[in-house]
Amino acid sequence: MYLIVKWNFSVSYHVIHASYKNQRITSYESQTHKLEKGTVIKSTGKWYAIKLETGEMINCRIVGKLRLGELKLTNPIAVGDEVMLEKESGLETGNIKQILPRCNYVARQSPRKKRRLHLLCANIDQAMVITTIKNPQLKPGFIDRFLLTTTPQDIPTIIIVNKKDLWAAEDEEVFGGLRAIYEPLGYPVVAVSALSGEGLDEFQQHLSDKLTFISGHSGVGKSSLVNAVQPNLELSTKEISDYSGKGQHTTTFAEIHDLAFGGQIIDTPGIKELAFINMEPHDVAHNFVEFFEALQHCKFRDCLHIDEPHCAVKAAVEEGSISILRYQNYLGVMGDVLNQNHWERETDW
User: Fold this and answer.
1) pLDDT tens, 273-319?
2) More exposed terminus of the chain, fewer Cβ within 10 Å: N or C?
């Protein structure tokens, strides 16, 4: 199934991989200086902290030697990228000369430049989306939008529901509903509390020996959870705003942190919203995995499961085998994509 999904995305979403073969990202290698390989550990905008294969850390930048070409990205390099760099003579800094091909990536629409993609991370083993049922209130639509950033890349994704210590009986029912929806689709759902410690053993087991991209809305307790299993990191935390009920950003830049029990995490600033300009309508439909499975029974092979007759997805929603919540979230994303003018969709990356 996923191979077919990936094939459907080969024209648009995966072109960032192909771009290296087409040399749309261009590098100029020095003929006289030795290039060294490293991994981007932190990005602060103009400067990148890079860990060399020897373990040495060095700050590097791009100084016009590397260009984006036609790629419509706000950032050419993401945390997790493997690069080739050249040390500057007599200095403790270096210049990035080449970005090595990525095995995967997570990207979103840039919040500032609406017709550009922003790379969040690259070359990860798995992703975690952190959410809460209360304080702040659960936003199921965000979960499905996040999954649309990882599913096309075949990135295993775990849903972590934090702040279990605040739950009442009805919240336990909501959590049970989330598990019933997402676990049959291959997305584990884990309840935890950074405050009480409940569920932290399972949370740590999922993190062990993997590079994990952690994301979620501001205020869901990403930093608190990581601090609970790795106290020496001392990631900054803040309380929920009493006025808005929303979280406040505590992480400023994306950064990789080592875990004492094995593995690494990529901590990133909280995300307020996720929008998609790099998807065609069929891309959305094919990456709601249960919809793709039902598509073979639809009357039309290009069915978008909205108002087409004899749609197997709508029939499955009516009979209860496909979650109506997932379907409503799907319609929300599809509405956003369909409301764009075709020239606003930047699918040729």
Assistant:
1) 787 767 889 999 999 999 999 999 999 999 999 999 999 999 999 99
2) N
- Beta carbons within 10 angstroms of residue 135's beta carbon: 15
Q: CA torsion sign, 257 to 50 to 270 to 128?
A: negative
Residue 325 belongs to domain spanning: 281-344
- Core vs surface per residue 190-217: b (16+ CB within 10 A) or e: bbbbbeeeebbeebbebbeeebbbbbbb
**How far apart (Å, rounded) are the C-alpha atoms in residues 281 and 304?**
7
Is residue 251 within 8 A of residue 223, CB to CB? The reply is yes
- At 123, list the tokens: 């070359």
**Global pTM?**
0.84
Strands (E), 12-115: 36-43, 47-52, 57-61, 82-87, 93-99, 105-109
Q: Among 70, 87, 102, which residue terminates a domain?
A: 102
Question: CA 196: distance to chain centroid?
Answer: 27
Q: Is residue 265 a contact partner of residue 223, using CB atoms and an 8 Å limit?
A: no
pLDDT in tens, 32-80: 468 999 999 999 878 999 999 999 999 999 876 565 555 577 888 999 9
